Every structure is written in C-alpha cells, then in structure tokens.
Amino acid sequence: MNIPQSSYPRVVIIGGGFGGIALAKKLSKKDVQVVLLDKHNYHNFQPLLYQVSTGGLEPDSIAYPIRKVLQGYPNFFFRLAKVTSVDTMAREVKTNIGEITYDYLVVAAGSETNFFGNKNIETKGMAMKSIPQSLNLRSLILENFEQALLTDDLHERDALMNFVIVGGGPTGVELAGALAEIKKGILPKDYPDLDTRRAQINLVQGGDRILPAMSEVASAKAERFLEELGVNVWKNIRVMDYDGNYVTTDTKTIFETATLVWAAGVQAVGIKGLDAKEFLCRGNRLRVNRFHQVEGFTEIFAIGDVAQMESEDFPYGHPMMAQPAIQQGRSLGENLVRLVEGLPMKPFVYKDKGSMATVGRNKAVVDMKRVKFQGVFAWFVWMFVHLYFLIGFRNRVVVFINWVYNYIRFDREARLIIRPYKKQNQELKNQLNRGS
Ligand SMILES: Cc1cc2nc3c(=O)[nH]c(=O)nc-3n(C[C@H](O)[C@H](O)[C@H](O)COP(=O)(O)OP(=O)(O)OC[C@H]3O[C@@H](n4cnc5c(N)ncnc54)[C@H](O)[C@@H]3O)c2cc1C
C-alpha cells in the first residue's frame, strides 16, 4: 500500500462514514499514524439519499471526498480499498489492493441492507443504502412513467405507477412522502397525457405503527401527514415475497407493482476474520465494551452501526444512526490518544439528542428528550440539523439553494435518467442469455 513506516503507532480505520471520519478528525493532529481505508473515495451522507432517489438533490451534493476532509495532515493516509478480511493473529488487514499491518484497528464499516435471506426481494427489489442504488431508483421511477405512457394495457400501466415501499422507519416514511409530493406537484405537469392520479404509493409496515423508534405522538402525526399526502399506509402486514410483478404478504393483500423498495432492515457489514460467535451479536454487530474494544481484544475497536455496546439503557446497543457513530468516533479518538500516552481510557456515554423524520414540505416530526413537536417548525429544525451535519461548505450551499428553489417552485429538477436502470438490466440479462 506504500504507507511509510513511522515511529508513531499505526491506527487503521476501516470505513470513512460518520464514525470513521469523526475518529480520523480527532486523531489528525496527534502522535499516531492514521490509515483510513474505504471502498469509496467519498463520504456518503445517507440521510439525504431519498432526495437523490426522488430528484430533489444531485448525488454530488451529498457526497464529499474523504481525502479533502483531512487534507494537510502529514500523518494521515487514505487508500481506496475494499477490506476483505482481518488476520487478528498477524494484526493485518487484507484488502483488494494489498495488506497492511496495524497497532490499533478500528472497524467503522457501517451497515448494509438486510433482506433476511430473501433472494427474490434482493434481486428484484430496490435498496437505498448507497448513491449508485439511489440513482438506480431515480432512473427506475422515471423509466416506469415513460413506459406507462407507451402501454395501452391498463393493468400494466397501473403496475408501473404503483410503488410499494417496505418498512415504516424514517427511510420508508421520507421516501413515501417525497414520492407523494412528486405525484401531486410534478407528474401532472410532466405527463399531461397520462392519468397520473392513478399512481399509488404504498407504505407497508410490519408493526402496528410507523416510526416505531419514535414516540407514539410522532408516529400518529407522521401517519396523518402521509395520509394527507395520499400515501396508503398499511400496518401489521409483512411482505413475504416479490417476483418482479406481485408482492405477496402474510395477509390476503397482494400488490401488483413494477417497483418494490426494501427499507425494512439493515445489518452490520461483516468482515471475515472478525466473525467469531463470542462477539457477533444480532444483526451481525460486533459486541464491544464501554471503550469500544471488541470482546476479547485490546487493540481492535468497533464504532457506529457495526458496534453493539450493551448497557441498561440500550440492551441491544445504540441505535444505528449518525449521532451514535459520530459521538463514538470522537470518544474513541480521545481514548486512543490516552492509550498511546499510557493513560486510562474513559467509558463512552451516549448523549441522546433525539430523533426526527420529515414527511414532506412543512411536515416533519421531532422527538427530543424534553420536548416533542411536529409540523412546520419541526420541518425547519430537520432542515437545519441536516445542513449542519452535511460535510463540506459547498455541499451545504448547494443543498440549501436546491431546497429553497424546490420550495418556491414546487419542483425537483434532478429528475434525470442519466444511467438507465431497466435498459442496463436488460442488457445484462441479454448477455447472460447469450452466454448460456
Ligand atoms: C437511507 C438512509 C437514511 C438514513 N437517515 C438517517 C437519519 O435521518 N438520521 C440518522 O441519524 N441516521 C440515518 N441513517 C443511518 C446513518 O446513515 C447510519 O447510522 C450511519 O451512516 C452510520 O455511520 P457509520 O460510520 O457506522 O457507517 P457509514 O456512515 O455507513 O460508513 C461506513 C463506511 O464504510 C465503508 N465500507 C464498508 N465496507 C467496507 C469494506 N469492506 N472496505 C472498505 N470500506 C468499507 C463504506 O463505504 C462507508 O463509507 C440513514 C441511513 C440510510 C441508509
């Protein structure tokens, strides 16, 4: 990997997400050599992925070059590398571009979509965990409408304009709300020769309320907001399968749709070599102690979505959200410095700053420790918080301008099919057919 040897201890970080970047920033001016490995050369601001999928934001505005975050720090090295395994005996990380040894290893690889073993949903449904996936979804939504214009088959047309979003957490709610706004404000203008009133947005939730991690008042209000926007909210229904045309459930309800979006679960990214039963918890997370040390190791740490720090308040670890990842990254940064200096580490204490979700224009729900509120003010708070945590001044300006423009014009101008999704898939299928 061409990383120079140094007299400083080497900290290898796997993942430049919220946790990895917060940690690297804390260590950047300290007496350690930091090597950050990520399979992408950018940080992905996942909370705004749904806006990319629905043409509200350009993908570049929610991505930020990892190299730029830590420019000018002589002890910091970034390598574009996909980590394949860890040899804990040899203290070595193996990647697609070579190996690197570590003194301290931090796993901050985040999470991936969990399809719970359903291959049909995995291959025929859409996930929204990365920027390329969001662009695929954007293309698919728009291609569906283009195709709906061309067919005389009413049945097929309805299926092309029928959207099923599985999972009533913030991702599902935000996506459903955005699609409903497109249906209301944009489709009738873009497709005057198509009866877009027939488009249906279905949000399917296995439990008895949406946003189950938030307060009951937030759930109820978000549901009302969605219904006002025309979203069909289905509760207590579990999606069982999808064959590319029909979604079957554990009830008699069947949806016919050309688009199923799976937002019903995530699991920690698994790293070979760090998969022993003793420390692997539910959802693939690595069990860590209060100092983020993976059980059984003193030199291997885990933070963010990948880590499960069990406590009385959080028996299954902290929520898989940006705040815990950022706070853990900062805390571990301080602790690693203390460790190197021979000082005792300080246990991590999570400061819960609350949670929020937006449903659409002027519609959001915010739960804070002492106060819960919904509506216009919540929506402004949601926007402010997202702008604040977005990395990069330019990104903040671009997102802000986009939001103001979209608000004033009731528009989402990034509804572009830059990389056709269906066509690409068709070509792949053709190639496979030719090969077989
Ligand atoms: C659609 C969506 C919406 C969300 N909305 C919110 C929200 O509103 N509020 C909120 O708090 N949270 C939200 N989250 C969750 C939040 O984004 C995550 O909890 C947070 O990103 C976790 O941070 P992390 O540092 O653990 O991992 P991540 O930020 O996911 O970073 C992991 C990094 O590891 C890299 N990586 C993974 N595997 C490898 C490998 N093998 N080799 C090299 N690099 C690797 C990835 O490329 C990535 O850069 C949302 C998530 C999604 C998907």
Automatic annotation (TrEMBL):
SUPFAM superfamilies: FAD/NAD(P)-binding domain. It is an enzyme of class 1 (oxidoreductase). Residues 10-329 form the FAD/NAD(P)-binding domain. The chain crosses the membrane at residues 376-393. The keyword Transit peptide applies. Residues 353-408 form the External alternative NADH-ubiquinone oxidoreductase-like C-terminal domain. One of its GO terms (molecular function) is oxidoreductase activity. Its EC number is 1.6.5.9. InterPro entries: FAD/NAD-bd_sf (IPR036188), FAD/NAD-binding_dom (IPR023753), NDH-2 (IPR045024), NDH2-like_C (IPR054585). It catalyses: a quinone + NADH + H(+) = a quinol + NAD(+). The keyword Oxidoreductase applies. Keywords: FAD, Flavoprotein, Membrane, NAD, Oxidoreductase, Transit peptide, Transmembrane, Transmembrane helix. Belongs to the NADH dehydrogenase family. PANTHER family: EXTERNAL NADH-UBIQUINONE OXIDOREDUCTASE 1, MITOCHONDRIAL-RELATED, NADH DEHYDROGENASE. This is NADH:ubiquinone reductase (non-electrogenic). It comes from Flagellimonas marina. The lineage of its organism: Bacteria, Pseudomonadati, Bacteroidota, Flavobacteriia, Flavobacteriales.
